[in-house]
Design goal:
FAD/NAD(P)-binding domain; 7 helices; binds NADPH dihydro-nicotinamide-adenine-dinucleotide phosphate
Length: 315
Amino acid sequence: MSTEKVKCLIIGSGPAGYAAAIYTGRANIAPVLYEGIQPGGQLTITTDVENFPGYPEGVSGTQLMEDLRKQAERFGADIRSGIATSADLSKRPYRITIDDEKVIETETVIISTGATAKYLGLEDEQKYAGMGVSACATCDGFFYRKKTVAVVGGGDTACEEAIYLAGLAKQVYLIVRKPFLRASKIMQARVMNHPNIKVLFEHNAVGLYGENGVEGVHLVKRQGECNEERYDLAIDGFFLAIGHKPNSDIFKAYIDTDEVGYIITEAGTPRTKVPGVFAAGDVADPHYRQAITAAGSGCKAAIEVERYLSANDLL
Ligand code: NDP
């Protein structure tokens, strides 16, 4: 297996990774960044980003990530495609294996691997993968023009996906397990007032059916404490928007994570318990999970890297 030595390895290409690359690049650290499974991160599968400061008219997620990438490249960041498949953080230099075929030996690591969409865990989700089941409305919504779809979830993502789909499909059902939405008030209002969206509170999807693709969903509606009603609803597409799992598995033997898998850092900093290893963005943020907070934490991680290298005479 080939080995390459670097001073700073950034894993992941969302706002946290690119912000870290911009800052470490400008500090002449020559960072190497591996893009990971989803180059550009979660924002590349969203629609418009309206709350990233500096864009009064909003910006598409793809455009924002392209701009961040170009900005990082301008300062010398070496951006590569590849996935970190294992990690040895037991001693410095830390060893990160890429695509099971190459080892990067690095003095510092910024883990900005983000989080991945969760599924309900129904067998039918796999059975109908690519045949009506999706975790990304902006990727797959186009296929459901003038059709009927369901979105599962009650958070901001679910509302955003439902609204996006309502612009394409003729009818959108939002399947919510609780009697209320968890989303922000503004998103709740948009969903509740949309003529093409019907919210099904206290409903759970328990299966899907269809001959050559999804034709419907088996639903259970809770009624009071002990009663439930089971019925089928005809749909053409089934979209999951029930949250994400942080991509921290390969680091868990060395650093602390919470019960969900979010990396635990020293309060208010991106420092993990391994010196020189920092975590930034959604992989370490169960609370805010915004592009701007991710970018901010990437900046903090980069400053920490610079200070660490300097303190250890590694610059
Ligand atoms: P959330 O964790 O906020 O919401 C997940 C939703 O899925 C909840 O309604 C939850 O239900 C439901 N859910 C979870 N598991 C299941 C299950 N097994 N069966 C049925 N329903 C389930 O995740 P989001 O992805 O929506 O949002 C993540 C973060 O990103 C939030 O902080 C959000 O505010 C932010 N965000 C902000 C946006 C913006 O500002 N433009 C856009 C999108 C996200 P329950 O409530 O019952 O737990």
